[in-house]
Amino acid sequence: xxxxxxxxxxxxxxxxxxxxxxxxxxxxxxxxxxxxxxxxxxxxxxxxxxxxxxxxxxxxxxxxxxxxxxxxxxxxxxxxxxxxxxxxxxxxxxxxxxxxxxxxxxxxxxxxxxxxxxxxxxxxxxxxxxxxxxxxxxxxxxxxxxxxxxxxxxxxxxxxxxxxxxxxx
Length: 169
Known about the structure:
Blueprint: H1 2-20, H2 34-85, H3 92-112, H4 115-131, H5 135-168
């Protein structure tokens, strides 16, 4: 019985020693193919860098114009409130100009309504294409995103212009 236990213990020690000194394939060694993936990622970043920069600049512009619209909207509300309080002094041309401005703002809001969803959709497509290393698809998604952003910025500026007209009345 003692010989059997001694043999079992010796076998376990030999096996555990073999496992401890076995060739490692853990985290210390780089995975095969990593340099290729890194090179592909660098190429993708170099090719799409200018487009990504344009999308970021457009986003900053949209945020800036949005803040200007918020300020102008508050002033326009006050101006319209004053017009209502002094409605006896309003002229017909002022009323018509106000109606025109409000109609143009409504038109712009109609154009603006779906643009955020379109931008988010294109950015989702871009991320998917970039993950799959499809440079052409990623580039097309960024281009479409920039186009939608440009339309949105133009409409936002149009709204801002109309709000400023109301404030100047």
